[in-house]
Amino acid sequence: MDRKTTSRPGGRSARVQEAVHAAVRELDAELGREKLTVPLVAARAGVTPSTIYRRWGDLQALLSDIAVERLRPDSPPDDRGSLLADLRTWAEQFLDEMSSAPGRAYLRDALVGDPAGNAMRCSDYAADQIDVILRRAAERGERTVGTETVLDRVVAPIVYRVLCRPGPLAPGYAEGLVDDLLGN
After folding, report:
1. Start and end of every HTH tetR-type domain (predicted)?
2. Is the Cβ–Cβ distance between 130 and 86 less than 8 Å?
3. I need a surface site. Which of 7, 116, 140, 145 has the fewest CB within 10 A?
């Protein structure tokens, strides 16, 4: 069984995870990513390196786990009163966050450490946000599209551009994707 799914949500396991995650963030800020090592992280977190290896396997898997947690939205999407306004606002915020230097690094880390599991978790975060927007629109009586359609036509192009074609995008790029999706 996968250790991540069998660990308790609280207690010592949660304290260790929190301490290790905090240690990585602190050391990354102080020393830079290239100088991070499992022994340094373990010493800062107050655990043994074997604890990190047992739980995460290696440094990249640990960085991936942290990245996925950092990519989790901390609030529901804004309610602007219409599907068009809600999706435009959400897509612009998503693009801003993912195209920032930390956002790009988190995306890369999330996909490198455990591509299947972490990619799905990241996708689920976006899908959950989109579900909220679509549910609100349906409750207002608006015609909606499916979550998978929004992922394919708005989220996927943004992630592709952020990871594979980094560089400045035309103003309104994300809004344009939403407008194309909704036929505006």
Report:
1. 14-74
2. no
3. 116
Give Cα 113 distance to the centre of its chain: 13
Q: Which helix (DSSP H) or strand (DSSP E) does residue 137 occupy? A: helix 115-139
Burial class (CB in 10 A: 0-12, 13-18, 19+), 177: buried
Could you tell me the two tokens for 5?
């799914």
How far is CA 38 from each of CA 14, 20, 32, 62, 145, rounded to the nearest angstrom?
Answer: 18, 10, 14, 9, 45
Predicted TM-score (pTM) of this structure: 0.79
Domains of the chain listed by start with CATH number: 3-57 (1.10.10.60), 74-182 (1.10.357.10)
- Residue in the block written with tokens 């990871």: 163
Q: How many Cβ atoms are within 10 Å of 78's Cβ, its own excluded?
A: 12
Match 């909220």 to its residue by tokens: 132
Rg over CA atoms, the chain: 19
Our separate counts of H helices and E strands in the chain read 11, 0
